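Protein Record: Sequence and Backbone Structure Tokens
======================================================
Scope: a single protein chain, as residues and as a discrete description of its fold.
Tokens: labelled as protein backbone structure tokens, with as many entries as the chain has residues.
Position: the record begins directly beneath this header, with no further notes in between.
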Amino acid sequence: MNDNEISRRRLLGTVGAAGVTGLALGAAGGAAGYAAAASGPAAALATVGSTTEPFHGEHQPGITTPMQSHGHLAAFDLAQGAGRREATALMRRWSATAARLMAGEPTDDDTGVALDAGPSSLTVTFGFGRTFFDRTGLTAQRPVQLDPLPAFSSDRLDPRRSEGDLWVQIGANDGLVAFHALRALQKAAGSAARTRWQMTGFNRSPGVTARPMTSRNLMGQVDGTRNPKPSDADFDSRVFVPATGSGAGSAAQPAWMAGGSYAVVRRIRMLLDDWDELSLKDQERVIGRRKSDGAPLTGGGEAAELDLDRVGPDGSLVIPADAHARISAPEQNAGAAMLRRPFSYHDGMAADGTPDAGLLFVCWQADPLRGFVPVQRKLDRGDALSRFVRHETSGLFAVPGGAAEDGYVGRRLLEP
């Protein structure tokens, strides 16, 4: 290795570390950084690359994991003639592959796509769709929570890019690491399953803001302010299926779902050209929050409670009756809540010349009949935001609990 190569590696390590701390370098700063790197010791792998998430545990990764900057969502259908035996072997392979990748280890048939990179907080999450149980002869074990979602007026669903026997969520803080995992799982599927659909998303990268902040969506809005937090006393009961197999007010759930959750997946196209025609004031009234910091229009910071009864000098509600924040608030939906963990997406321009962009909406709950469904029904009846979004794909998946060290995801279902 020559001196130029050594200097380049040191420069890359220094730049990576600076990104983690949120340091912004201009042209002069970049030159100074290069000089310092060239004369100092080689930098260790930046924090953003070295961070790992555990694969094994009570819950699967990728649910409570902090949002990652790159993601892939994919659904697979079992091959014709494949059944429970093939599905079991597939879940064994997938779990072993995911565990190695998340530990930063190469696979047996590694492509080298992520060579030199650390694990970068990679997570891989697996779920089962409604049709999986028909294909594997396990219909008696299918939860009622997987009953089809009701139709909504904003739905323009493409069935070819909806649902699926199996679902995979991949997240990482490096685009190549995320793509590497996707390719590895597609290859590991072998002849047992074929890709039904796949979508790619993104979020902010760690360290690009001066302090940790709630992410923004492509409308520029702070998105996820009132998400349940693991520190909340009722977090587990809202997000995860209890070990007893049932929850208060929920239909009984099969024992194999203990520690699991349900993911609702929606590709929501944002009509950005129409949205951008609104004034800032009108945008804020549609949402019910300030665009600058996500705070309610009734005042305070981002985390301030909504004052839903406050009226302005003209006697009208400060947070309009059809504002998105009002209609989706848990107190307006008998406490219904879900953990939203989306990615943004941009798939170029549509045929009409408008951006094909929006949100890969993923939400988690112990029971979608008490989480997503009642809230979406309420939004469907009068949300001001509905004029600017279109739900184009949909999926509902049962995501079992995490794998034991000597097991694999779904073992309690496939080997009762």
